[in-house]
């Protein structure tokens, strides 16, 4: 998986060379021997997120139970995930009930890689570390806004569909640019 991560980061940096500085630590981690997609790898590891676009170009967000924040569906890479995009699709399906068969990639690469710090969690025995979240833009054929979502209630308390223009920062700019060109 490290080689897959390296290739994805390099492809991403070809499009977004201005983000190289923030991703250098990830490149170093992926070039090492520790499995960069394992949640046990510190000081950082890869996670994957789904930017699920439904009807009327709205983006699905979930309310994360423990963080009590609106986020994109996503999470850690599992051993059975063949690719990072597979991990994003699996997480979307697990957290929302949207089947993988109802999802189509809108690009063949992550449209964003977000590096964010995770605080120490003594209850889980986890030191502070960094998540490098590979975010994939996925079109959902169903259920779309107003349709049925089957939330994984252990982790998620609610969902909503928001216009892409309501996303924040560089993610908004990247998503709206791809949707504009689609």
Shape by Cα distribution: globular
Question: What oligomeric state do these chains adopt?
Answer: single chain
Which architecture per CATH?
Alpha-Beta Complex
Work out the radius of gyration: 16 Å
Q: Provide the helix percentage.
A: 25-40%
CATH fold field value: Nucleoside Triphosphate Pyrophosphohydrolase
CATH superfamily: Nucleoside Triphosphate Pyrophosphohydrolase
Distance between the termini: 30 Å
CATH class: Alpha Beta
* Average residue-wise pLDDT: 92
Number of domains: 1
Order of helices and strands: HHEEEEHEEEEH
Largest pleated sheet: 5 strands, mixed
Number of helical segments with 4 or more residues: 4
What is the tally of beta strands? 8
Query: Uncertain regions: pLDDT < 50 for 5+ in a row?
Result: none
Strand content: 25-35%
Strand-pairing-aware structural class: alpha+beta
What descriptive keywords fit this protein?
Nucleoside Triphosphate Pyrophosphohydrolase, globular, single chain, 182 residues, five-stranded mixed beta sheet, three-stranded antiparallel beta sheet, alpha+beta
Describe the structure.
It comes from Frankia canadensis. This is Nudix hydrolase domain-containing protein. Belongs to the Nudix hydrolase family. Keywords: Hydrolase. The chain is α+β, with helices and mostly antiparallel strands and 182 residues long. The chain has one domain: Nucleoside Triphosphate Pyrophosphohydrolase (Alpha-Beta Complex), CATH 3.90.79.10. 29% of the residues lie in helices and 29% in strands. It contains four helices and eight strands, in the order H-H-E-E-E-E-H-E-E-E-E-H. The strands form two sheets. Strands 1, 4, 5, 6 and 7 form a five-stranded mixed β-sheet that branches. A hairpin with a 4-residue loop joins strand 2 and strand 3. Helix 1 runs antiparallel to helix 2. The longest helix has 14 residues.
């Amino acid at each position: 998986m490290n080689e897959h991560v390296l290739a994805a980061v390099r492809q991403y940096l070809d499009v977004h060379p201005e983000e190289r500085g923030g991703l250098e630590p990830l490149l170093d981690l992926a070039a090492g021997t520790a499995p960069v997609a394992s949640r046990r790898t510190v000081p950082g590891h890869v996670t994957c997120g789904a930017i699920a676009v439904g009807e009327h170009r709205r983006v699905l967000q979930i309310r994360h139970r423990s963080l009590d924040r609106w986020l994109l569906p996503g999470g850690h890479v599992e051993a059975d995930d063949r690719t990072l995009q597979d991990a994003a699709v699996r997480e979307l399906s697990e957290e929302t009930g949207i089947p993988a068969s109802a999802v189509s990639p809108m690009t063949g690469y992550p449209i964003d890689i977000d590096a964010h710090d995770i605080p120490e969690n003594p209850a889980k025995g986890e030191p502070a570390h960094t998540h490098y979240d590979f975010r994939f833009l996925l079109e959902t054929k169903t259920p779309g806004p107003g349709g049925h979502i089957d939330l994984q209630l252990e982790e998620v308390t609610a969902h909503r569909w928001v216009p892409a223009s309501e996303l924040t920062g560089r993610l908004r700019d990247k998503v709206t640019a791809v949707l504009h060109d689609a």
